[in-house]
Records
---
Amino acid sequence: MSYQYKHHGWQPCPEARDETVRHKAIIVGGGPVGLTTALELAAYGVPSVVLEDGDTVSEGSRGLCWSKRTLEILDRHGVAEQVRARGYTWHTGRLFHGDREIYHFDLQAVAGEKFPAFVNLQQYYTEEFLVDAVARQPLIDHRWQSKVVDVAPGNDCVAVEVETPAGRYRAEADWLVAADGTRSAARRALGLKFDGSTFEDCFLIADLKVHAALPNADRRFWFHPSFHPGDTALCHKQGDDMWRVDFQLGADIDREAEKDPARVIARAQKMLGPHPMTVEWVSIYTFQGRRLERLRHGRVLFAGDAAHQVSPFGARGGNSGIQDAENLAWKLAYVIRGKAPDRLLDSYDAERGEAADENILLTSRSTRFLTPKTAAERVFRDAVLDLAGEHPFARALVNSGRLSTATIHRRSPLNGGDGGFAGGVAVGGPCPNLPAPAATGSHLLDSLGRRFQLLCFADGAPAPAALVELDDDIEPILVTRGAARSQGAPQSLADPDGRLHDAFAAQPGTCYLLRPDQHVAARWRRFDADAVKSARDRALGY
Amino acid sequence: MAKLRTDPNLTDPDGFYEALITAQEGLPAAAADQLKARLILLLANHIGDDETLREAVALAREGLEKKSR
Ligand SMILES: Cc1cc2nc3c(=O)[nH]c(=O)nc-3n(C[C@H](O)[C@H](O)[C@H](O)COP(=O)(O)OP(=O)(O)OC[C@H]3O[C@@H](n4cnc5c(N)ncnc54)[C@H](O)[C@@H]3O)c2cc1C
């Protein structure tokens, strides 16, 4: 393996010296979701302890496609540019039927956004950058080689039993975030069912170092290619000239024989060409679509793979888990700081449960298209593929994965009024990260803070006095078509080419209330201080 | 509200029926299956409206479970 794993040993902690500490939050699992949760909490000033069983980052690559929304969240911790620099940026996907390209799609919709639709990077790198960001953050106590073996939820606290190389200890916290992956110990300790459907087909997944410059680095997906007759195949470029190949193998296979490196290379050379290559990582997977019925169990909150699992076609696993983390962290922080009622945490279940349902639905449909179960299903699948070569309408039916986009929480109990807009940014959706030059950065999200903010499209008119003195926890931001106002409150953003105005369907007077997680809580055509405050209260669960 | 038209709407019923069965003449069973699937997809796209299509799918399936038993 060319990646150099850094190993992190167990370090003594207060509990191991028999001291009792009541932590604000314990996070079980230091994968991408647990680490992002810890970083997000710290950004709100909330300290946490991360308990991680292993002593290093992800074994093998697993997740590779990191979505725009993930990059925007990671950017708040200085990690997105590292991912981008190490990784491979792409937005074109090519689809083949047999050996013929039937069409391609382009995921890059809006010009000027800070981040691309996807950056491909091996999961161990992404985790390494998160681990480094966590190490820079004094509010996070990251404990390696610390395996949670039991979770005991109580009325006013949660206790965990931790196994370390130096023995066991018990730790306590007000809140527990279970981000301990598909085999979650927390889920088991609470005796929770994790139901759904399993797909029978096996997929061979390998990361290959290719010692040659390959001409085509777009996402490529084949149905019935001549190099792998009858099944599907997928290839992606990652960082360090690493390539991810994926072959559908069917249900009845000899797993060990298939993982033989020589055999993997033989398959891959038929796909990529007769170049020298080495196998970095290989695995065989079957896929599941399932979720916990509820993501909140009192003081225990489930996030990421511990809460839901999807097939990887669509890159929705890690990306949705990272959105869980950001959705949960601000709510938990507000509750911990006494600035929102406990009930706000129920909206985590409502919003991210809706997201999990959507992800399971979309990935299950993709998997079903890839693996027709009956002859009749196959007839339709093949008819779609045949028609797609000539007829654009059929291309919309070809489903090789509907790639992860940010969730819009359309039915959230936190949503306020939608103010009769046609277009713009929907209530429940995240803000587009368009250019908005300011002292704080080059794009809109660079200027958003860890609190509620009111984007006001005032079009050069002086800010109403009521705006400036809105409320301690609502900061107004003026967006003007001309240059930004130079000094003083409220903060002001320039929108010289009107792109923000267009994206928000803004007219003079338009206001958008933004939550700390950059999602829209409510919007109006005209500023009204009372309406804004009551929408903010609603978005806090009051 | 039913959106699917089930009242007579074909301009030339006999002619259409003839064209439909003639199209399958001489095709092996697998190709005839493909023809039917393509035809459904083409017509579905022409209709477009999701509610109408779902009503048609449901209506087409009606009674078949009982028959196959
Ligand atoms: C083949 C494949 C391809 C994928 N491709 C993509 C993709 O392109 N994009 C994408 O977004 N996602 C992808 N995914 C999914 C992605 O890898 C997962 O969704 C993601 O890793 C979930 O993160 P997590 O932090 O919830 O869980 P994990 O990454 O599993 O992390 C859980 C952590 O908890 C630790 N842990 C477990 N039990 C305990 C315990 N008892 N005590 C303490 N610690 C514990 C583990 O050691 C681990 O570090 C893919 C997955 C696979 C398998």
Note: The interface with chain A takes residues 33-34, 36-38, 40-42, 45 of chain B (CB under 8 Å).
---
Amino acid sequence: MIAASVPLQRPPDAKLLVADRSGRVRHMERSTLVGLFEAGDLVIANDAATLPASLVGRHLPSGHVIEARLAGRNSLALDQVKIFSAVLFGAGDFHLRTEDRQLPPQVQAGDRVALGSLHATVASLLDHPRLVALEFDGSPREIWEGLARHGQPIQYSHLPERLAIWDTWTPIAGPPVAFEPPSASFVLDWNALASMRARRVRFATITHAAGISSTGDAELDALLPLDEPYRIPASTATAIGTVRAQGGRIVAIGTTVVRALEHAARVDGIVRAGEGLATQRIGASSELRIVDAIVSGTHERGNSHYELLRAFADDETLGRIDQELNAHAYRTHEFGDSVFLESAHRGSRAVVPRSAAA
Amino acid sequence: MTTTHDSDTSRSPQTRHRARDAFDGTRVAITGGTSGLGLALVRELLGRGATVAFVARTRDAVERVAAEDANSHGVVGDVSRKEDTHPIAMQILGALGGLDVLINGASDLGPTPLALLADTECEDFERALATNVLGPFRLTKALLGSLASSAREGSGAVVLNVSSDAAVSAYSRWGAYGVSKAALHHMSRIWHEEIAAEGIAVLSLDPEDMDTPMHAAAVPDADRSLLKRPEVAAREFADAIAAALPVRAAASELMATEFPG
Ligand SMILES: NC(=O)c1ccc[n+]([C@@H]2O[C@H](COP(=O)([O-])OP(=O)(O)OC[C@H]3O[C@@H](n4cnc5c(N)ncnc54)[C@H](OP(=O)(O)O)[C@@H]3O)[C@@H](O)[C@H]2O)c1
């Protein structure tokens, strides 16, 4: 696949590969996506807006330039904005591929960093010398102002121009809690929501703090995805119960929606309203208890997004999809083309207990 | 449901209490919250139980107003600047977690002293359009996902754009301002047509001539005793917002039936 090099969220020529549950593949124009949804389906998107999570500044003990990419937090609570996990990079800007960037200086717990108007302490090292917990000075208000004024969206070396914050917010963006865009939602504009309503397709959202997608370091990437907090609104939980009881499909827009919903349902197969922390990895052996189909970007074999697709389809089907994506010159990465993948297991799972419909 | 509730007739303690409950937990953002009508709205809505984030350019004034009440959150930003849109939206959402009501009140008069269109500098016209039309457009767009999410939860959502009689009447010397307010008014009507189905009501309301610094800048020799107090306009606007929020409207109707007054 080729990298999408223009930060257009909905390019008019965007492509969509559709694989139904028996593994049959066809190609569509992505602008006709809504036509794939049926009356009675529930489409669920992640409405997280994207933080300007890249903060450039200095590691004070060494005086070296560093870039801290905020990568995770443990809760969406309003006052919990002091501590973030962050991946550190050395000097150099986004034109360099992350794997070619200078390494950051060695950091230790207790080191101070200055990032624009923000100051922080390295609270601890996490499971890698470049993955740290940063604790910011100041009140939540001061931290938000510092992030809003000094932060830049995380940049990608395959894009020739610097991304602006508005390039990274999906049309439906709500709370600014994602570290990189929940880019599958780029497909949805307000016109698509209106078309869904006209077709009696329901729409709901969750808020999931989508973490960083890759770091350019194989050891670090192996730790992804980090734990991600999410919130499920009451109306979404209710709609899931109703739609499942009536036999409609639950269609997830993006891998983060799958992770949140399947995490919420892990105990008894029921999604309840409230906040949670998704810690699980989804892969070939995961059972999907809630989600029947996914709309996703085109992912490269090996990364955690691709692994998640293995819960939907077997390797033979995914292999054929890969060949088709390559043969038809699909674009990959955040601003690339999309796939619609129906779970091969749909219909085979146990009948929903009546209480789940309440 | 049988009693029609006239919110303006009595101001008994009970009525006040009811009015207060109507906004409990409601998350409101107000641009232009440090002076005149915007400041009066900040205080009125806080008084009725809302949590409020407000925006203005002057840091000292923002900090002064924020210090009045722990439930208010000040954001320093300029709504006329495209680059400020997302930082403003982010700080509003960071403080409130979501949004039920957006009030676009910040406004620019165009040239002061007011001038004939023929004498209006393009830059002054552009600033009026940027502040009064593009700013509210951009901020509404950036916050629309949050407003829609609130509407899906059943609590409704309202955008209130502060209009003016200059939006409809062709007053000499009010060209830049009048054109921008006319555009804002029409934009409000189109937004409303388009997003009512998402559960978001868009209101465009004229507060009428008020005794504020902006009025003094526009009409320095006005008889201030004839002007409305911004607190009065703020109360009327708060009532109009409450009426447009389905849950609150239903709740106040229910209470009106329980306590006919
Ligand atoms: N007063 C009247 O008679 C009257 C009549 C009809 C309609 N209105 C409308 O009512 C609204 C309020 O008017 P007012 O008389 O109360 O005005 P005001 O006293 O002059 O207050 C304006 C407020 O907006 C802020 N503001 C101005 N430009 C801004 C910008 N670019 N970005 C962010 N904040 C900005 C100001 O603070 P900073 O300067 O620090 O930014 C201040 O807090 C306006 O929409 C006005 O058009 C007024």
Note: Residues 122-152 of chain B form the longest helix (31 residues).
